[in-house]
Structure formats: C-alpha cells, structure tokens
Amino acid sequence: MADTGATGRRVRDDGTPVFTKTGGAFPGMARFEAAGLRALAAAGARVPDVLAVEEGRDARTQRLEIAWIEGGGRRTPRTEEAFGRELAALHAGSRRAPGETDLFGAHDGDPEGFLGAARIDLTPCASWAESWVVRRIVPLAAQTVDGGTAPPRVRDLAERLAELIDGFGPDSPATHPGAAVLGPAESSSLVHGDLWAGNRMLDAEGRSWLIDPSAQRAHREVDLAMMRLFGGFGPGAFAAYDEAFPLADGWEDRVPVYQAVPLLVHAVLFGGGYGREAEAALEHAVRLAG
Predict the structure, then answer these.
(1) Neighbouring C-beta atoms of residue 133, cutoff 10 Å
(2) Between the chain's N and C termini, which has fewer beta carbons within 10 Å?
(3) Exposure b/e, 184-210, CB count within 10 A at least 16 = b
(4) Euclidean distance between the first and the last CA atom of the chain, given in angstroms as a whole number
(5) d(CA 258, CA 173)
(6) What is the pTM assigned to this prediction?
C-alpha cells in the first residue's frame, strides 16, 4: 500500500479548521509538498496556504498543515473552462524570461522528489529528454521489472527509447526523433506534476484548488496527460487551455508518453495491470520515435 501520510482535520484554538498530514513512506515528503504548494502559489495558482511543516525525527513523524478548503462543488462547463484557462496561465506565466537559465526537474534545485509515495529523480537538467526519459522512465522501468510488477520487456523498451531520443535538446531540429516523442523543444513551465482529478478540489463557488502537487519544472504536456489518465476533467478544460495557450501539433498522440511515468509509479506501488499499461505506453513512445 502506498503510504502518502495520514490525513485529518483539526480545529485550532481560534476555531479555524486546518488540514493535517502526518507521516509518509520517506523523509522529506512533507517538505517537498509544502515547497511545491508555495511555488505554485507564487506562480499564481490557487492552492491552500501552507501553515506549518515539520521534518520530524523520521518519516513517520513529519507533518504538514495547510488551510482547510471546503469542497463540495460540482463540475460544470463553466468550471472546466475556467480551470483550463487558469492552468494555461500557470504554465505560460511560469516560463523563464529570455536570458534566464532554463532547467528541467526540481523547481528549487533539490533533486529528491516524489510522485505519490514513490521517489523520483528531479535533478535539474538542461535537456527535457534527460529529465523525463533518462532520469525517470529508465530507472522506474528497471524498478518495476526487478520488483516483478511489469513484464521484462518494459526495461528493454525504456532503454530503447533512451537511445532513440539521445541528444534531443533545446536546439535540436524538429526532425529529431525526440521531437516526435516529447514534442517540439520548448521552455519549461512550473507544473503540478500529479494532476489527476483527485488533486483538484472544487469549492462551493465552483473555484478550482490544486492540492498534493509533485511540483517541478517540466514540459507542460505532463499536466494535460495526467488529466486524461483517470478522467474527471471535462472537454471544456482542454479546449479552453488550448485557446489560451495553444498546444503543439500532435500533443494528443504524445499523451501516452507523458502517462508512462505515472503508470510506472503505479506499477511500483500497486502492481496489478499497471505494468502492462506502462508497457503499452512505452511501445507507443518507441513507435513515435521510429
């Protein structure tokens, strides 16, 4: 079972309700989540305020406290369109200014990251191909195969993909195989990083709140692909996003590429059919490169 921490509601002495999360699979998870929420807030996203974060003596005693958000809102065409525009604004507004160093991975330079209760390598990289494929897909594929939660071919596919996209970087031509797999080279954005429907709350006024981020500097299609992995977002969200911040041609064909990492993480944590789904996603990625 994935241990992302025990959650609860606490009422402060002044009557203010707060959301608490204690423990987790690894030390540093509370700090990572708090840093992500603060980074997203600074970039203009609507997130709960971080009220307290404690490292604790070990993973079990780390603690995060954030403002309580009352949910209960329902999706409507209006809420979905608003969310699409807000996500586009986050991605567009968080791009580096001309002349600034643009690195993919950690938003704060700390290479240790988490996706759910799995460790991921967010070492800052000049190449998105290195960050996504070499530092995440390849080691996670090996972990699933070694753990018996994915077919042996998953490792081979990941290594083949790394070979095919080798050398793809910001100055690569559109004819490079990496462009077909990862999309045309573009600047990094600050992304939520784990944007399934459960990590978006709707309050009674229909406003969307982002919670439980795996915040990082990444290709913006990471968030769009995660939104499609388990459903829960209306078509209006994608249409409004594309209108506000147009996506590169072929983005829908690249969705499985950007679902590969969360699928591998789910295979690591839960087993089941996720290993086969990850295999299919990697097969698709290799075909795109070929």
Answers:
(1) 28
(2) N
(3) ebebbbbbbbbbbeebbbbeeeeebbb
(4) 37
(5) 21
(6) 0.96
